[in-house]
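Two proteins, back to back. First:
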Amino acid sequence: MGRDSALAIHRHADTHWKPQRAAAFDQLRRAALSVILNIAEGYAAGPGPRCRYHFRVAHGSAVETTEILDFLQALDGNVGELASQASRVAAITYRLWANYRA
């Protein structure tokens, strides 16, 4: 799910990029990529504090992704299903983090 969302976001940025939105699209790409990379790094670290740390960072990046998409939606209303997909990823990363916090 996270990978699919990141790919969709990168493709959206490729087709909807405008100079005046460059900073937002750059940050959006980095945040979406950070989600999947931190999940991978957390799993690679194995159980324990490093894993929890990476899952927390992944969740933070997922929330950041949804906020940027909300911002872009408010500017010109052209994010399609990306916002709802990103919200689902944020919920998943929260559950990952919450399960490993306990």
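And the second protein:
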Amino acid sequence: MENIKTKKIKTEDFFEGFASDIKNNPKKIKEFEKAVNEIYNETGDIDVILGALKVLSCLKGNVSKLARDSNIERASVYNLFKKGSNPTFKNVAAVSYNLGVNLNLSFAHK
């Protein structure tokens, strides 16, 4: 994590490194949350957010249940996690909520 700002990181590689470590580890979950926010705030790349949601959904385990709980089609959940997808904000918000992720708005000061 020491070179996050200076090293170009592929989203998939970055999240794969965290996936196995964060389950049931509050310290690692906090590190993951911080890293996701830093990278997204630096790049503005929606795939960073979608990648993080994908990792969290895999840890939760059941995409069908996530889709039902989010009141969206299962295929829409899978499409949400595809790199380069363009999901609706409604679907991102519903999945985020059901994964226990709060979406917050803050204004960039440039």
